[in-house]
Amino acid sequence: MTKFVRQQLPQDRHLPPFRPLQKAPPYSHPRRPRSFHELRERLGEYGPLAVRAAELAALVRWIHDTPEMSAPADVAMLSAKLAMDALYAAAGLPLPTGRPRLDLLPRLSPESQDEARRALHGISAEWNAAGRPYLNGERIAKTYTYTKSCMNKKERNDRI
Predict the structure, then answer these.
(1) What's the domain count of the chain?
(2) Which long-range contacts (CB under 8 A, 24 or more apart) does 155-159 make?
(3) N or C: which end of the chain has fewer CB within 10 A?
(4) 138 lies in a domain?
(5) Is the pTM of this model over 0.85?
(6) How far apart are CA 69 and CA 66, in angstroms?
(7) Residue 118 contacts by C-beta under 8 Å, 6 or more apart in sequence?
(8) Shortest CA distance to 127 belongs to which of 51, 64, 85?
(9) Least confident of 63-67, 130-134, 148-152
(10) How far apart are CA 38 and CA 53, in angstroms?
């Protein structure tokens, strides 16, 4: 095997001696909101939307973990997700991928729309009576991150 030896090139003679990089200060990102007040404050005009989205996200989680409810779990889950999509679509926020968000509720038959609204109303009442479980700082922080990413995509799409 041939050994490769680095030859000292003329330009190497004028380089300063190697010094290791200094350690960069630790990155500190702004703390994500943990309350409705902080959420409204940080997201401005989209604050009320994010509050309702956090409630619906907590409701979806509760539906997932609750075995017995007044409405079938599939209908209740779909109703909550349709309501959340309708909120973001009405605000003009795209999906985090940048694709346009569709409000699918109006595309359902009138009977299906009524069933979805009744299911959401009934399940929301049960969730409120149960003490609004899963609506905590973590859920609010996740909703903030999601809404902020939708807002950023909207800004980028508007610039294009």
Answers:
(1) 1
(2) 156/98, 157/94, 157/98
(3) N
(4) yes
(5) no
(6) 7
(7) 71
(8) 64
(9) 63-67
(10) 15
